[in-house]
Amino acid sequence: VLEQQLFNALSLGCVYALFALGFTLVFGVLGVINLSQGAVFMVGAYAALTAITKLHAPLWLAILGAFAFSGLVGLAIDRLVLKPLRRRDAPHLIPMIATIGLGQSLNNLVQGLFGAENQRFPSEVLPQESLVIAGVSVTVLELGIILVSFVLMTLLLVTLRKTQLGRALRAIAESPKAARLLGIDVEGLFMATSFAAAGLGGIAGVLIGLYSNALFPLMGQPMLHKGIAVIILGGMGDIRGAMIAGLFLGFAEVLSVAYIGSDMRDAVAFGLLFLVLLVRPKGLFGKTQERKV
Amino acid sequence: MLEAFDNFWSIYSNLVLTLGTNALLALSIYLTLSCGMLAMANAAFMGIGAYAAAILTMNYGWPFPAVLAAGMVAPAVVAFVIGRPVLRLSGVYLAMATLAFGEVVRIVALQAESLTGGALGLNGIPQLTQWWHVLLAVVVVLAVLARLRRSKVGRAFEAIKEDETAAGLMGIDVDGHKMLAFALGAAIAGLAGALNAHLTFFIGPQEFGFDRGVEILTMTILGGINSLFGPALGAIIITLLPELLRGLKDYRAVFNGLILVAIVLFLPKGLWNPAWLRRLAGRGKGNAR
Questions:
Q1: Bridge partners of residue B122, in order along the sequence
Q2: Closest chain A C-alpha to B258 CA, distance in angstroms
Q3: Which of A62, A77, B39, B237 could cross-link to A51 by cystine, CB 3.0-4.6 Å?
Q4: Closest CA to A51 of A41, A43, A61
Q5: Considering only CA atoms, which of A28, A13, A1 is closest in space to residue A179?
């Protein structure tokens, strides 16, 4: 049974990691905590649902569509709200407040359009088979979730580490001003980052929607709160840290349900966060930064 | 005439009194903001105050003034306890940690069923709050905060807000002042919660979650934190807005969020901004920024 639990934890942790990845990428590159990421996650799930029920798209196409749609939402948020604030050089709490408002609007817009009740993916699009690997019965769905997450995470890591684009992004993360002087198209990369981060969030939304088979307009809120815990645990802006912390949270949650009781599941993330903030204010893997004076 | 007033009051008394409790909430977060901290725990503090007060009234039959006092003390004590580690954090880390704390409070309220009624909340809280209780609370809090602004403590808050390091170097006890703002804000939020609980008959954990926190922040940011009128004005607008936007039905909250965005984009200092108001009146020099 333990192996079974660990497998569940892996698929859940993968989705947490994927969500947190987009979240932490935006912070690393744009220096903004985008609190509308939870709503974008939910928009992705509903976009896939609409693609499947209204347009009769196959699942893979719906996932791609969710990536594109939520990516565009993220892009619009950057262009319409974050960019003017950047221009004004607003204090860093200001974009955070603006994105809280955006998240609330998106949540309630979707609630108005689709209703507050739970929606499901039609069961015929979900893979129903399960395999037995090393004595553990594994659903194809969970396997797919893990596979998709790992492919996307690897893709992102390789892009950041090995390509010219990644180098440019890391330069911006260090200092946008210096990057601009080096001839890097900073605004363009901000746009690309906003798109990719929101797109990843959207895919995470579809995957969670498939995992729990329940979509509701506020599904992004618990995810956002957990994402916050994950990116702080991993160190803000730290891509690898977010991945590790996301997986870790998945395991911590599933094991605490197994051994302590399901009541405490949602408290795990914040309990962990609280503890870590007490001991290491910059996160588990975060480097301690000199204070800017 | 009196009859007309009675009519009005029987329909709108709850709304008018909610104006008061919302103004208290807006002022509670104003206090931490004026000290340069974005602490998002005020909804949780309101909840702690509300639960503490309601439980004392219903289970122990405490007199109402003592209940209100306890509703202030309980969140202030909690703020003091979590403040020591949490207030070491700055900027976004503080906001995140306080958000997380709010979630913890909500989960505890959900789980501690024997005390809080769990997801069903507490029902049948006696409606002890009179209109003058709310009015008195608002006036007293406004007076205290106005006095505070002009005192040494208020100046210290402002110095910390502008530049924490410099304030520390000038010999201001940064940690102590932050703790004071945090705990006092918690007490005010708790008072609002206690008054509100004895007004609305019912409290439940969902009322004190993330959305309430956002609403409180919206009121204060909308009004602006340059003066005490800002948060109060913001509270009035956000409280009345749903009544005015009734036609939008399900989309009311969409509008609320967009207002927050619009304010941040176009009126960075909030509505109550003397320079902007003067310019609007066509007399200022036009340097609203």
A1: B203
A2: 6
A3: A62
A4: A61
A5: A28
CA-to-CA distance for A231 and A187, rounded, in angstroms? 24
- Sole residue written with tokens 């912070």: A27
Alpha carbon distances (Å) from B34 to A128, A255, B263: 56, 42, 18
pLDDT at A281: 67
Give CA–CA dist B171/A148, Å, rounded: 55
Q: Is B72 on the interface with A (CB under 8 A)?
A: no
Is B218 in the A-facing interface, judged by CB distances under 8 Å? yes
Where residue B127 falls among pLDDT bands split at 50, 70, 90?
Answer: confident
Residue B259 near chain A (CB below 8 Å): yes
Single-letter code of the amino acid located at B138? V
Cβ separation B100–A273 shorter than 8 A: yes
A–B CB contacts, 8 A cutoff, strictly below = 125
Contacts of B92 in chain A (CB under 8 A): 33, 92-93, 96, 236
The model's pLDDT over A153-205, given as tens digits with 9 standing for 90+, comes to 999 989 988 898 888 988 888 888 888 888 888 889 999 999 999 999 999 99
In sequence order, what are the beta bridge partners of A132?
A: A137
Provide, as residue numbers in chain A, all residues whose Cβ is less than 8 Å from the Cβ of B217.
97, 100
| Greater pLDDT, B84 or B253 | B84
- Write out pLDDT tens, residues A17-36: 999 998 889 988 888 889 99
Q: How far apart are CA B260 and CA B108, in angstroms?
A: 30
Residue whose token pair is 């798209």: A57
Please check the confidence at residue B268 and state whether its pLDDT lies above 70.
yes
Residue B224 contacts residue B230 (beta carbons within 8 Å): yes
| B266 inside 8 A of chain A by CB | no
Q: Dihedral angle at the C-alpha atoms of B149, B155, B158, B162, nearest 10 degrees?
A: 160
What is the rounded distance in angstroms from the CA atom of residue A34 to the CA atom of residue A36? 5
On average, the pLDDT of chain A sits at 86
Distance CA B152, CA B176 (A): 13
d(CA A75, CA A67): 12
Q: Encoding tokens for residue B204?
A: 């439940």
Residues in B touching A92 (Cβ below 8 Å): 91-92
Backbone angles phi, psi at A139, to 5 degrees: -80, 150
| Contact: A104, B214; criterion CB under 8 Å | yes
Task: Give dist(CA A149, CA A155) in Å, integer.
Answer: 10
Give every CB contact of residue A174 below 8 A, 6+ residues apart in sequence.
none
d(CA B54, CA B122): 8
Task: Identify the residue among A26, A32, A223, A270 best suited for mutation to test binding to B, counting B beta carbons within 10 A and taking the highest.
Answer: A270
Overall pTM surpassing 0.90 (yes/no): no
